[in-house]
Amino acid sequence: MAFVLELKGITKRFPGVLANDHIDLTLEQGEIHALLGENGAGKTTLMNILYGLYQPDEGEIFVRGQKIEVHSPNDAIRAGVGMVHQHFMLIPVFTVTENVMLGDESTYRGGFLNRAAAARQIKEISEKYKLAVDSSAYVRDLPVGVQQRVEIIK
After folding, report:
1. Residues 91-137: pLDDT tens digits?
2. Contact, 25 vs 5, CB < 8 A?
3. Which CATH class is domain 5-78?
4. 63: Cα separation from own chain's centroid
5. pTM across the whole model
6. Where are the beta strands (DSSP E) in the chain?
């Protein structure tokens, strides 16, 4: 059986710093893991590589046994990999719909957000994962727990 997620030999260097040194990580269906370590240990760097925010200098990423190339968060999302950031990456004065669809060109027509299509998409995702949110609500008005749901949906 293939692992749900497998990182093999992930290495990342920054000038003067070896942030990740040949990291191997495997996840099986239903497992829950925690990455623990001191500040500067490379945890965030590893997750940023998995999510396409950084490129590894060496190593490979597999999802369900298939090697993937993750050059951007969109690539990660297409492969089924999402990330909830330590600090929310939401714009408080935007609605849930505007925040979730920001950067997703599939819901734009002629440069404008197709709100009906976007709201349908958010509803489908929130129902699929049982993460109830009001797509028309402004993020600034939402409790922190609901804001985290928006991050997950995003």
Report:
1. 999 999 988 888 666 656 677 778 888 888 888 888 888 888 999 99
2. yes
3. alpha beta
4. 14
5. 0.70
6. 5-14, 17-27, 58-63, 66-68, 108-109, 112-113
